[in-house]
Amino acid sequence: MSIQVQNVSKMFGSFQALNNVSIDIESGELIALLGPSGSGKTTLLRILAGLEGLDEGAILFDGHNITNVSPKERKIGFVFQHYALFRHMTVFDNVAYGLKVRPRKERPSKEEIAKKVNDLLALVKLENLADRYPSQLSGGQRQRVALARALAVEPKVLLLDEPFGALDAKVRKELRRWLRKLHNEFHVTSIFVTHDQEEALDVANRIIVMNNGKIEQVGTPEEVYEQPNSPFVYDFLGNVNLFKGRLHNGKLTHGQFEINVPTHLDSHDDAIGYVRPHDIHIEKENSNNDTVAATIVHIHLLGPIVQIELKREDIDEYLEAEVTKEHYRELGIKKGDVVYIRPKQLKVFVPEDFSI
Ligand SMILES: Nc1ncnc2c1ncn2[C@@H]1O[C@H](COP(=O)(O)OP(=O)(O)OP(=O)(O)O)[C@@H](O)[C@H]1O
C-alpha cells in the first residue's frame, strides 16, 4: 500500500513536534525514519498508526484520505522497542492472537491459523520454541516473535518503532537480516524508526532524515550518505572533516591553503567545506599548493579500512582520513610522519544552510 503524508503538523502544547511534513512512500518500500532524539520520528509513526491525532494535514493510504480512520481499521502491524508480547501466552499463541480475536465471520479456521503460525515461526526459525513463554526467550528471539505476530494478520503497513533498540550490537545485526528477509518475502510497506545511522543505511531502501520536526532529506542510502543536502545530514550520517575558510572565485581559502570548489558558488567570508574521511587523499610529498600539511597522530589498523588521525600543521585542528589497507601499505606511512592531504571531494555550505 502506498502512503502519502501531506503537510502534517503537530503541536504538543506550545512545542512543535512536526512542522509541515510531507512524504510519498510507494507500495512495498522499506523506509527508515532516521533522526536524533526528539526529532519527531515516533510522533510521525504514531500519527500513521492513528494512535496520535494531527493538527494540520492529511494521511492517505493508496490515495484514500484515512486521517480520521480508527487505528483498527487502518490494518497496521506494529512492533515496538520493548517486546510487547503477552507474557502469559506461549510463542504460538502470541503469534496466533491477532487471528484468533477476529470476529467469527473473518476468523480463519483453527487449522488455517495453526498452519499460518507454524509457517511464520519457521520463517523466523523459531518453530522449535512454539511452546515456550516470552520469559524463556532471549531478547532477539522475542523480537522475532513480535515480527511474526505483526505479520500474522497480513497488515497493509508495518510500523516498527526502534524495534532493535534494546538489544546488543550482534543481535541487532541479526535482526536487521530478519527484517530484510521478511520484507523480501511479504513486500509489506514498512517504516522503521531508528536513530542508528548504520542500521538505516544497512536496511532501508530509502531513508527519511528528520531534524526538529522537519524533513531534512529523503533519498536512497547512497544519496543521503554521498550527497547530503545540508550540514545536519553530513554530520548525522557518518564522520566528516570540516574545512573552514573564505569562499572566493571558485576557491575555498584558509591561510596558505586553497581548495578548488567544484560548483560555482557566490563568494562568502564564512564558508565550510565538508569532506568525508574516505575523500581525504594522502601524499607523502607536497606536489601542489592545494594540499595541507598534517602530522599523523594515530593509526587505527583494525579491519580492511585504515583510519588515520591527523593534526593540521597550519591550525590547531584534527582530521580523519580513511584508506584501504593496501593503499596504506603502498604509502608506507607511520605515526609522527608529516604528510600532505587534499580533499578529493567536498561540499561547501555557508551559514544560511545551517538550520538552528
Ligand atoms: N504526548 C506528548 N506530550 C508532550 N510532548 C510530547 C509528547 N510526545 C512527544 N512529545 C515531544 O515531541 C518531541 C518529539 O518526540 P518524538 O517521540 O516524536 O521524537 P523521536 O524523534 O521519536 O525521539 P526518540 O528517538 O527519543 O524516541 C519530543 O521533544 C517530545 O518530548
From TrEMBL:
Keyword Translocase: yes
Domain ABC transporter: 3-237
Protein's name according to its UniProt entry: Sulfate transport system ATP-binding protein
CDD domains according to UniProt: ABC_CysA_sulfate_importer
Molecular-function annotations in GO: ABC-type sulfate transporter activity; ATP binding; ATP hydrolysis activity
Name of a matching Pfam family: TOBE_3
PROSITE patterns (UniProt xref): ABC_TRANSPORTER_1, ABC_TRANSPORTER_2
